[in-house]
Design goal:
Elements: E1 11-14, H1 30-35, H2 37-43, E2 47-50, E3 54-55, E4 67-71, H3 78-90, E5 94-99, H4 109-116, E6 128-130, E7 140-141, E8 149-151, E9 157-160, H5 175-189, E10 195-198, E11 222-223, H6 225-228, H7 234-244, E12 252-255, H8 265-269, E13 277-278, E14 288-290, E15 293-297, H9 302-319, E16 323-324, H10 334-338, H11 347-358, E17 363-367, H12 388-399, H13 404-414, H14 451-455, H15 461-474, H16 478-483, E18 485-489, E19 496-502, E20 507-513, E21 519-522, E22 528-533, E23 539-540, E24 544-547, E25 552-557
Parallel strand pairs: 1-2, 1-17, 2-5, 5-10, 7-11, 10-12, 12-13, 16-17
Antiparallel strand pairs: 3-4, 6-9, 8-9, 14-15, 18-19, 19-20, 20-25, 21-24, 22-25, 23-24
Helix pairs in contact: 11-15, 12-13
The protein binds 1-deoxynojirimycin and calcium ion.
The site of 1-deoxynojirimycin has 9 residues, from loops.
Length: 559
Amino acid sequence: MNVQWWQKEVIYQIYPRSFKDTNNDGVGDINGIIEKLPYLNSLGITMIWICPIFKSPMVDNGYDISDYKDINSEFGSLNDLETLLNKAKQYDIKIMLDLVVNHTSDEHEWFEAALNDPASPYRDYYIFKEGVNGAPPNNWRSIFGGSVWEKVVGEDMYYMHVFDKKQPDLNFENPKLREEIYHMINWWLRKGLAGFRIDSITFLKKDQDFESLTADGNDGLVTCKHKTRNRPGIELFLKELKQQTFEKFDCITVGEAPGVNYDELTDFIGEDGYFSMIFDFKYTDIDVESGSDWFKRTNWTTEEYKKLLFESQEAIQKVGWGANFIENHDQPRALSKLVKDPSYQNFVGGSAIAMLYFFLRGTPFIYQGQELGMTNFERQSIDQFNDISSIDNFHRSIEEGFTEEQAMEFVNLRSRDNTRTPLPWNDQKFGGFSKTKPWIDLIENYKTINVQIEENTSSSLLNFYRELIQLRNHSKYSQTLIYGNFTAHRETNENIISYFRNDQTTKLQIIVNLSNKHNDIDIKNTNYELILDNYGAVEKTENKIKLRPYEALIIEIKI
Ligand code: NOJ
Ligand code: CA
């Protein structure tokens, strides 16, 4: 593929509520991001993606927008954002915002107008349908639980919401609505954003038959995904969206596009695709059968993970470019999920999974706190959760016949609140995040896992991430690590994940022992040089490397 500027980026994801609070109201803010630009710069990242900061009642922490062109006051103002854009530029750090156009908040003025007056033109900005015999129009279940339909008070009408009832879906069938959205996107892009991460974008098209399907749960409902996610006809919306907005700017677009099969990747990320790259959840969701039903857990193995990872890389390489991540604000902490043995949920495990994904072909994303080795936060009772999805999954698990104890376990393993705890900057009260009690509790281990301690420990995970970024972007291997081919290495022990990055001049091999056992790997060409090893040095015999638990390394094979 042709070289694109966004291929060399290293993107850091900020969950603004939990990054840094500067006015001590317990909630992170834009000024907090400004204050920490030197930290981000010293890490070596080149771009930040900030989760939604627009005006919002915060039912889904900003993914419910009530005004697209204003900033939620708890985060600051448009002026603060302009300041951030300018200051970030001084560090050569670009900024991506989160674009949420599948739905708005029910407090958006369009929805308020739609709800108040059946004759309002804004009704057709959303999806309103008549009930059937006093019941909702069909049996689709929303992603956050319950019916996708919410009754309009005083009418036999319902409005549709794929997510929470306070997140009504926009009606993309309406050209007028589409035009308003394009206008808003272009308004933002003209402000000098690098681009957008684009929320839930595969949900734009709903099957217009609105037909019920066979129930798949004890609630008598069926996941709406079959009828609302990546459905035929979406190509028209996505093509037009690109033509009317992104294409006019040299911007980066990262689609959150669950439900896309590998044989459709050309449409999404091919040369003429809708987006620069999309997130692939197929291996990220290895621990559950479906990202929204947390009680359907799998008993996954490293071998299965490896297979999915390789399939993903190979499929993407054929047509375009990947967006590589192991953690985000909807996922558990990767260290708790991918490193099964708790005694390695530390520097060793953290550096192993870092090495594993960071050198894959694509643009790497780092989620705040991942670079410190933050872990899941185990909560004792459902009242301690803020995340609407956690609360829904708790009740659904019980409805499906699990005990409260089991339900708590599922939620603790998967809760989105695991990655939403405040970032600990030091071991002081509230971790230096704020001087007041934060909106959500800090994880107890912040006294030992925090930025300050890791800054001062040369062998910390934070410094390991710095090394990875330097290697990828500023070393003699950069060209190969960024643009080189990906080649899977399948002839290894089941617990070892190994792949090559190579071009005409250089061949690099990444090797990760994703297990707590010792394992050997054959290195066919004994003429190699160690570049980086999370144990410091390799233990080798003739043509074998003896890998210790969760050992990870990168070597150059001399060709
Ligand atoms: C995906 C976002 O990442 C998630 O946090 C949000 O709840 C849903 N989309 C709905 O916007
Ligand atoms: Ca604040």
